[in-house]
Amino acid sequence: MSQVEGTNHTYNEEACYEVAVVGGGAAGTSAAVFTARGGLRTVLVDDGQSGVQRAMLHNHIPYADGIAGPDFYRLSLQQAVKAGAAVEQGKVVSLNRQGQDDGGWVLQLEDGRRLEAQAVILCTGKALDLAKALGLELAAGRERRYPDVIKVDSDGRTSLPGIWAAGAVAGVTPHTIAVAGDGARVAINLVSEKKGQRWVDHDVLPAMAHS
Ligand SMILES: Cc1cc2nc3c(=O)[nH]c(=O)nc-3n(C[C@H](O)[C@H](O)[C@H](O)COP(=O)(O)OP(=O)(O)OC[C@H]3O[C@@H](n4cnc5c(N)ncnc54)[C@H](O)[C@@H]3O)c2cc1C
After folding, report:
1. What pTM does this model have?
2. Please, which of 11, 32, 201, 204 could form a disulfide with 80 given CB 3.0 to 4.6 Å?
3. Residue 7 and residue 78 in contact, taking contact as beta carbons nearer than 8 Å
């Protein structure tokens, strides 16, 4: 798997993240942008298999002339880095609770790296292996290629505290604009829960700041 330009990150074994996003398609990159901009120490782990890399997108505003999937994937990961997220390329092979019930989560990567995070957002597209290994409740999916999805509440919480899910794996229609919106929505709910109040990420044009 080649490193995506602009996402080089030095693995820090000591880092304890507040959020780990598993999956770097449109849902995961969008979620990571919002949690990082919400001030939460965020790591995104992706194994580079998103179908978006084979897509030619003509239905994602504001790309009126379309955008090639590989460009969309690269720019999305770069935006997550710009927002402050660390990006690790690799496959998460297991997720285990650390210590007692509220002790956060340990993510084991295929190559031996280990990450710790207080909360996890699963944005794994078609892949349900982690969800099944965790014993998460599943639900019947409505979309053709997604017969089973992770059952989530209206905020994106799964049946296990501290584990959230967004995008196609959580039953959202598999279109980049829809799953990106869902990643953002679930991330905002997670940030709001952490802050104890609703959080809004709005910036204002400098010229309008004092009007
Ligand atoms: C050929 C093709 C054409 C498409 N064309 C369009 C189109 O024109 N318009 C449109 O809107 N959508 C299109 N799509 C759909 C779109 O690309 C996305 O697949 C869809 O929106 C789902 O996004 P997602 O982020 O939920 O999941 P995905 O895009 O599937 O991303 C999930 C990511 O998680 C990673 N992952 C899974 N498990 C792990 C793990 N254990 N550790 C680390 N990483 C993991 C996967 O490898 C992947 O990179 C197309 C898809 C395909 C395949």
Report:
1. 0.96
2. 32
3. yes
**Considering only CA atoms, which residue is closest to atom 52 of ligand 1?**
51
Q: Kindly compute the dihedral angle of the four CA atoms of residues 97, 101, 102, 105, in this order, to the nearest 10 degrees.
A: 0
**Cα dihedral angle (174, 177, 57, 92), rounded to 10 degrees?**
-60
Q: Is the pLDDT of residue 1 over 70?
A: no
Residues sharing a CB contact under 8 Å with residue 111, sequence separation 6 or more, in sequence order: 90
Other Cβ atoms less than 10 A from the Cβ of 59: the count is 11
3-17 pLDDT, tens digit per residue, is 777 776 556 766 789
From ligand 1's centre to the CA of 210, what distance in Å?
Answer: 41
Which one of 124, 132, 164 would you pick to mutate in the ligand 1 pocket, going by the greatest count of ligand atoms within 8 A of its CB?
Answer: 124
Which ligand 1 atom is nearest residue 178's CA? 21
